[in-house]
Design brief:
This protein has 236 residues and is of the alpha/beta class. The protein has nine helices and seven strands. The site of S-adenosylmethionine (SAM) has 24 residues, from helix 5 and helix 9.
């Protein structure tokens, strides 16, 4: 399904393209991407998302805004029995993920190379066991806060899409964004913060894979926050 900018108030992502792709990445975009691209035509979305992957997977995870794909590729390599859908509209980021996938030969990744809002609308409740939103664009100006990908109405969607006991992982080095995300997440009755002590949000979980933006933030001396929320049991 193609992006239809008219059905949304505005774009949430920054740029769509960057520097021209070098020949090897261009080739991967032409040859590898079509084989793993997620087709969002409703008749092509399997009821069980696990069917998207050639080898059996236990659960499906979603990473929104994977940037250069470093985290996604490492998680896919370390967790071959999970399927991961990555969503990213920035062409150069998608090309970077293709390079990682080509290098490590994983088969458990599918890519939606467009705005996540299209995907969110079409997925069935309880589709994902985990959702990663890592160092999303902070949109620091208050007139742009509505573009943030973690806010009241998107959190309702993330809670809908998570399986019972599933986890939403949010990380950011932007204090204002962390505060507003935490406030909205705590307001959602279907999600529960898993932190018991400050180290639980100051330190990345043990199965973490560092992202490019996380590295940049740490190099500047900024301390990211790592928020983990569990989807509560649905009542029967
Ligand atoms: C600041 S970058 C962080 C990238 C990566 N997660 C990292 O930590 O290195 C935020 C990414 O989110 C993507 N993004 C923004 N809005 C999006 C949307 N509506 N759907 C999917 N991705 C989006 C951007 O294209 C960008 O690559």
């Amino acid at each position: 399904m193609a992006t239809n900018e008219n059905d949304t108030d505005q774009r949430w992502y920054g740029r769509r393209t960057g520097k021209p792709l070098r020949a090897s990445r261009k080739r991967l975009m032409e040859e590898l991407l079509p084989t793993i691209r997620l087709d969002l035509e409703p008749e092509n979305i399997p009821i069980d998302l696990k069917m998207l992957f050639p080898n059996p997977v236990r659960e499906v995870w979603l990473e929104i805004g994977f940037g250069g794909g470093e985290h996604l590729a490492e998680q896919a390599e370390k967790n071959p029995d999970f399927g991961i859908i990555g969503c990213e509209p920035f062409v150069n980021g998608v090309a970077s993920l293709m390079k990682h996938i080509d290098a490590n030969g994983v088969t458990n990744v599918r890519v939606y190379d467009d705005d996540v809002r299209h995907l969110l609308k079409l997925m069935a409740p309880a589709s994902f066991e985990r959702i990663f939103i890592l160092f999303p664009d902070p949109w620091p100006k208050s007139r742009h806060h509505r573009r943030r990908i973690v806010k009241d109405e998107t959190i309702v969607e993330y809670a809908r899409l998570l399986k019972d006991g599933g986890e939403l992982r949010f990380a950011s080095d932007h204090q204002g964004y962390v505060s507003s995300a935490l406030r909205f997440l705590l307001q959602n009755n279907n999600l529960q913060w898993t932190a018991r002590r400050s180290d639980d949000w100051r330190i990345a979980p043990p199965d973490w894979a560092e992202t490019r933006y996380e590295q940049k933030a740490k190099a500047k001396g900024d301390a990211p926050a790592y928020l983990r929320f569990e989807r509560k049991q649905r009542s029967i």
